[in-house]
Write a structure and sequence with these properties.
about 60% helix; mainly alpha; about 140 residues
Length: about 140
């Protein structure tokens, strides 16, 4: 008796499952630089505006609570991680560094909470940029 097999042809190694497009490159970069812009580029207006308002509000509230904005230095590991979290805010981080916001000594009881707000705003923006990239690739509807 002859064997019947239903083999699928193997995919070529050079063809990716999700092809990389220009939007898949531009959306996460724009979304990192300006919170929510990666979604706005892709006409996901509600999600983009919600992300923009959330990240900007958390960053501003953190600064209002005298939260610290970390600079790029090779010091303690916690300062390096704080810098990476702050850098996630994109243009907000650079604006804060240029204007000197978040550089004062932690003299208030709320300064630690403010620092956490600023870091979490950056981390949320990193996640939003990755989400914009996945939407542009077609991995997420």
């Amino acid at each position: 008796m002859a064997k019947t097999t239903t083999e699928k042809p193997a995919k070529a190694a050079s063809t990716p499952e999700y092809p990389l497009s220009r939007t898949a490159i531009v959306a996460p970069i724009a979304g990192w630089l300006i919170p929510g812009a990666g979604h706005l580029i892709q006409k996901r207006y509600v999600r983009g505006i919600l992300l923009m308002v959330s990240v900007v509000a958390m960053f501003v509230i953190g600064l209002g609570m005298n939260g610290r904005v970390y600079g790029p230095n090779g010091g303690d590991i916690l300062e390096i991680l704080g810098f990476i979290g702050d850098l996630g805010s994109g243009a907000l981080y650079f604006l804060a560094r240029i204007m000197g916001w978040g550089q004062a000594a932690a003299a208030h009881a709320t300064a630690d909470y403010g620092k956490t707000f600023v870091i979490v705003a950056g981390l949320l923006n990193f996640i939003a940029a990755a989400d914009a990239h996945h939407i542009a690739l077609g991995k997420k509807p």
